[in-house]
Amino acid sequence: MEDLWTQVGNVGFPMVMAFYLLVRMEPLIKELQKSVTLLTVVVARLGGLDYREAKGLLEGQVVDK
């Protein structure tokens, strides 16, 4: 029985911490995603690409001009 509680303590704590950090970090990850998307648009325009072309290149699609 004591081994069970030890295993719950060893596995349960990391699971709870991972869930807590995921919930706390999700808004930050979404903001970073928006920033990357904005930078993609800026770099595409500076390079003379259309946004759809740049998006297609990022997604691995071939985009016809």
Low-confidence stretches: none
Q: Approximately what portion of the residues adopt beta-strand conformation?
A: under 5%
Shape designation: elongated
Helix content: over 70%
User: The biggest beta sheet, please?
Assistant: none
Give the H and E element order.
HH
The first-to-last residue Cα distance is 68 Å
Rg: 22 Å
- Average predicted confidence as pLDDT: 84
Structural class, from helix and strand content?
A: mainly alpha
**How many strands in all?**
0
Number of helices: 2
* Total domain units: 1
Report what the structure shows.
82% of the residues lie in helices and 0% in strands. The chain has 65 residues and is an all-alpha fold. It has one domain.
Summarize the structure.
With 65 residues, the chain is mainly alpha-helical. It has helices at residues 2-46, 51-58.
List the helices and strands and how they pair.
Elements: H1 2-46, H2 51-58
Features:
65 residues; 2 helices; mainly alpha
